[in-house]
Amino acid sequence: MFTSDVFSIVLALLGTVGVIVLTYYGSRWYVEHFIKRPGSLSSGQHIQVIERLIVGKSGSIIIVDIQGVQYLIGVTEQNIRILSQLDEPISFQKKQEISKESFLSMVKSFSQKEKQNE
Q1: Handedness of CA 95, 99, 100, 104 (dihedral sign)
Q2: Three-state DSSP class for 19?
């Protein structure tokens, strides 16, 4: 009797681990095939967020590409405002390849242009 109880517990444990592993790989497959596709719900065909920098509790600065034209946009909880249209579009890179220095230098050059325009 004791060995059959241990066997059933081990079998139930292996079944539970198997279900967890299948759920993990199934959800990874779903994300890769349905969520990350261009034109899916998470990304538009004509609009792509290039970079986002959180600048406060509820504010951020975003670079958005809309059909090849890039905009610097300020976003808060109450307001969304186009700050500038970028004269020189930045290239699309994978998120890991984009450096914070390039984004910050672009924001600094934008603020310098705004000071010159005032």
Answers
A1: negative
A2: helix
Instruction: Supply angle C-alpha 107, 110, 113, rounded to 5.
Output: 155
Q: How far apart are CA 51 and CA 101, in angstroms?
A: 12
Do 98 and 48 form a contact (C-beta atoms < 8 A)? Answer: no
Beta carbons of 90 and 102 less than 8 angstroms apart:
yes
C-beta separation of 91 from 102 below 8 A: no
Length of the chain: 118
Residue type, 49: V
What is the three-class DSSP state of 115?
helix
pLDDT tens digits, residue range 65-117? 888 889 999 999 999 999 999 888 877 655 445 566 677 777 788 778 777 77
Are residues 83 and 110 in contact, defined by beta-carbon separation less than 8 angstroms?
Answer: yes
| Residue 20 binned pLDDT confidence (cut-offs 50, 70, 90) | very high
Stretch 37-53: mean pLDDT: 67
Q: Are 70 and 64 in contact (CB under 8 A)?
A: yes
